[in-house]
Design goal:
By secondary structure, the protein is of the alpha+beta class. The protein contains three helices and four strands; from the N terminus they run αββαββα. β1 and β2 form a beta hairpin. One of its GO terms (cellular component) is plasma membrane.
Length: about 80
């Protein structure tokens, strides 16, 4: 499983992600249901850090954040058509 797919899984799956964006060195996500987020799964991708507050989750990954968000968005779109 790719890092992007693992991050989507850790955020509770494609259907749980409302917004996703890259911000310099981090991935910012807004999720529908915070209880579905698994920080343990996210940490399997070896991020620099994970910060969550309610529906907001930030995953600090370094300069690869743009590429990861692009791949995560492709994963989400592919899931929508299944």
């Amino acid at each position: 499983m790719t890092i992007a797919k693992k991050l989507v899984e850790g955020l509770g799956g494609a259907q749980n992600i409302e917004e996703l964006e890259s911000c310099i060195v981090r991935i910012r996500a807004i999720v529908s249901e915070p209880a579905l987020v698994s920080e343990a799964v996210i940490r399997e991708t070896s991020p620099i850090g994970v910060v969550s507050s309610g529906r907001y989750v930030q995953i600090i990954v370094g300069p690869s954040s743009d590429d990861l968000v692009d791949e995560m968005n492709r994963t989400i779109k592919a899931t929508a058509f299944c």
